[in-house]
Design the sequence.
């Protein structure tokens, strides 16, 4: 049996074995158990092109280490495949390998660009309870200095609707007002866009939810003490405050969590799906969770959407009876009252399941381990299409082999 057929058989067995030990693709970030009342719905394109869409989803929610690891493992896999290929005459081998290497680099770059830039089909979160509100507390538009050009409030709303959100706070960096046009032109439509701002301070960024005008961040960004002065002032004005700690975890210690609570923050982010924030070690995330439980603060997940990367990998679930009948202002107030009064139990953070390494050694093997996890969390239709793609690739390789061998024999010198 040729190598390609043996490899196809092994990969098919891996898919089948993973499906025997399948897991929900969703996980409660606090308890690390599958949420019983939420599921994912996939567009047909997402299922048909399963090898590409599943991997792109994982990369969209990954850390910087994941992105680097993916590139490294892709190179390793390419080299192993090329070493296994035989039959090229030595005179042409260097030229052919250079061409294949250039093609590999081009395809890899095109895939990463497609996953990062293209408005491709993505999973959508679906909840069964009509009183359950799916909300994002942290997203951006082109008004932010690092927002994607052309990614306005309408594009922000369209993306959140595709991902299954009912409402989203728009929290541009140190500016305010992106949602006014959407609110005027799209009254009553899903999703609701709600007012907020991400304020850049000394050593920490803070989400200010429920504001009605821009919050000046200067001169409060000058020092940690001045940061505390602004937080105390905003707390006195009943602004709902959430530090984006996963993005700034290197700047903080446990003692500073206590200071933030004393100053008046209302909750903490524990899962923020930006590459920098996803570098947060599991131990540090457990520390934030433990502190939130101690202080009875709600915990939040944030997409931190800037218009790049397409898959939503985290959602907040809030049970708020009657929310559909509320206007935007009333909904904002109801959410803030619910979170303040309900504490830890008032918000559930649900994310796409992934394995996050604790050590550098774990980081080195994060890509293959997460690939195995993707096979376990893939839906049955995704798994079936993965098998189809495996055998299509094997068949395509078998059709090319005779032609290459024939060409090689034509070029061989005659024997005496």
Sequence:
């Amino acid at each position: 049996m040729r190598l390609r057929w043996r490899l196809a058989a092994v990969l098919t067995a891996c898919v089948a074995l993973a499906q025997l030990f399948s897991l929900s693709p969703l996980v409660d970030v606090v308890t690390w158990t599958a949420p019983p009342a939420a599921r994912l719905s996939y567009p047909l394109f997402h299922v048909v092109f399963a090898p590409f869409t599943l991997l792109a989803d994982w990369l969209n929610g990954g850390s910087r280490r994941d992105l680097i690891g993916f590139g490294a493992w892709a190179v390793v896999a390419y080299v192993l495949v090329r070493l296994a290929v035989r039959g090229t005459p030595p005179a042409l081998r260097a030229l052919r390998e250079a061409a294949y290497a250039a093609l590999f680099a081009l395809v890899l770059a095109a895939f990463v660009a497609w996953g990062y830039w293209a408005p491709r089909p993505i999973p959508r979160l679906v909840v069964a309870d009509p009183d359950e509100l799916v909300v994002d507390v942290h997203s951006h538009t082109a008004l932010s200095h690092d927002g994607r050009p052309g990614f306005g409030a309408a594009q922000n709303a369209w993306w959140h609707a595709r991902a299954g959100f009912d409402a989203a706070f728009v929290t541009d960096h140190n500016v305010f007002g992106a949602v006014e046009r959407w609110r005027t032109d799209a009254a009553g439509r899903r999703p609701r866009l709600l007012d907020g701002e991400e304020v850049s301070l000394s050593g920490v960024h803070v989400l200010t939810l429920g504001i009605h005008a821009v919050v000046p961040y200067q001169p409060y960004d000058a020092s940690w003490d001045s940061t505390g002065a602004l937080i105390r002032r905003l707390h006195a004005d009943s602004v709902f405050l959430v530090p984006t700690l996963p993005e700034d975890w290197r700047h903080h210690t446990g003692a500073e969590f206590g200071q933030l609570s004393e100053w008046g923050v209302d909750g903490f982010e524990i899962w923020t799906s930006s590459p920098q924030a996803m570098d947060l070690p599991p131990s540090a995330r457990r520390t934030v969770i433990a502190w939130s439980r101690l202080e009875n603060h709600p915990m939040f997940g944030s997409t931190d959407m800037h218009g790049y990367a397409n898959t939503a990998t985290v959602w907040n679930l809030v049970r708020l009876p009657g929310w559909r009948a509320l206007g935007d202002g009333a909904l904002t107030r109801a959410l803030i009252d619910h979170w303040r009064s309900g504490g830890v139990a008032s918000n559930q953070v649900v994310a796409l399941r992934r394995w996050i390494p604790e050590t550098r050694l774990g980081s080195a093997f994060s890509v293959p381990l997460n690939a195995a996890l993707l096979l376990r969390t893939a839906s049955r239709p995704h798994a079936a299409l993965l098998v189809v793609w495996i055998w299509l690739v094997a068949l395509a390789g078998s059709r090319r082999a005779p032609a290459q061998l024939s060409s090689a024999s034509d070029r061989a010198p005659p024997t005496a």
